[in-house]
Design goal:
334 residues; alpha+beta; Rossmann fold; OB fold (Dihydrolipoamide Acetyltransferase, E2P); 2 domains; six-stranded mixed β-sheet; five-stranded antiparallel β-sheet; 9 helices; elongated; binds adenosine-5'-triphosphate
């Protein structure tokens, strides 16, 4: 079951926001729509929700054709970037709201509300008002409110976008655990590749209204299907394929070579094979060090772990050798 999107296109005037999207979101999975601003992520999410109508194509939710079904009849839970809690209701009343307007018996409302307060780990804060909560707590309440009515599908549009980096990171881990408990089919929009990697079972990479690739976080990172995906889901050096530092065992193809910074190795002069390079900048990033190197006409960026970096004793303008453990080739550049 889950969500099946078939040949969905959507125009805003002359602008094509979605181009023949085909996507299968398996039942009970958490899928991230990842892409740069304007790539069509929110439009696709809003189309699944019924807040936008596709111009062509169809959307099936749990076996039902919902393409033209009213938004209220889709039984979808929605969480937006900006907390849409009712200010004049307490946390408990906010969570209970959807159940009460559905005329759920009071005993059931109470049970469900307490269960959800436990699930979002805010048991002690049920009587507070939204303005007495932190941003992260408010988003947890928004999620509980969306889950209260047992939606068939949960849609989240940059739910942690307005929060600071530390809280975002905590909430990602929390959402992952929560999803493992509730297993509702969920689609999550983000432009943050780290967030998508950490939270999702599958990532859908979007660009200019099209899907570039669908895969697990590991598949997307290790086997990017296009230069766009390779560049979007992590840093990358793009070099002409004839450049020397490409590993000998790599099958050199036409086009450009894509090398991740952590795939580069630095070797002291005389200590092995490699392409001569000059150290131009060293930046300490905490758990790793970024070294920018000049190789004739090109610059490359290497990321070294502390263990790799310290024994090298690198200094600015030092001559070194550089080589790559890996490279991928694409015929066109992103
Ligand atoms: N109601 C609308 N009318 C006209 N153009 C729109 C409308 N909604 C979206 N668009 C355009 O469609 C494109 C895709 O927008 P969308 O919001 O889906 O992108 P996104 O990938 O979610 O970007 P962001 O991360 O910035 O939210 C954008 O160029 C946007 O300007």
């Amino acid at each position: 079951m889950g969500i099946i999107i078939q040949q969905v296109s959507k125009n805003f005037g002359d602008f094509q926001a979605l181009r023949e999207i085909n996507l299968d979101v398996k039942d009970g999975t958490l899928v991230a729509l990842l892409g740069p601003s304007g790539s069509g992520k929110s439009t696709l999410l809003r189309t699944i929700a019924g807040l936008e109508q596709p111009d062509r194509g169809s959307i099936w939710i749990n076996g039902q054709d919902t393409t033209y079904l009213d938004v209220r009849d889709r039984n979808i839970g929605f969480v937006f970037q900006h907390y849409a809690l009712f200010k004049h209701l307490t946390v408990r009343q906010n969570i209970a709201f959807g159940l009460e307007i559905r005329k759920t018996p009071p005993k059931l409302v109470k049970e469900k509300t307490e269960e959800l307060l436990g699930l979002i780990q805010l048991e002690g804060l049920g009587n507070r008002y939204p303005n007495q909560l932190s941003g992260g707590q408010r988003q947890r309440v928004a999620l509980a409110r969306a889950l209260a009515v047992s939606p068939q599908v949960l849609l989240l549009d940059e739910p942690f976008g307005a929060l600071d980096a530390k809280v975002r990171k905590e909430l990602r881990a929390w959402l992952r655990r929560l999803h493992q408990e509730v297993h509702v089919t969920s689609v999550f929009v983000t432009h943050d590749q780290e967030e998508a990697m950490e939270v999702a079972d599958y990532i859908v990479v979007m660009n200019e209204g099209k899907i570039e690739q669908v895969g697990t976080p590991t598949e997307i990172y290790d086997h990017p299907a296009t230069p766009f995906v390779m560049s979007f889901v992590g840093e990358v050096n793009v070099l002409p394929s004839h450049v020397d530092l490409i590993p000998r065992n790599a099958k050199v193809r036409e086009g450009a070579a894509f090398i991740r910074p952590h795939e580069l190795e630095i070797v002291p002069l005389g200590a092995g094979e490699g392409t001569p390079a000059i150290v131009r900048h060293i930046t300490h990033l905490g758990w790793e060090t970024q070294v920018e190197l000049e190789l004739g006409d090109f610059e490359v960026t290497a990321h070294l772990s502390r263990e790799q970096f310290l024994p090298l004793n690198l200094t600015l303008n030092q001559k070194v050798l550089v080589r790559s453990r890996n490279a991928r080739f694409f015929s066109q550049v992103a």
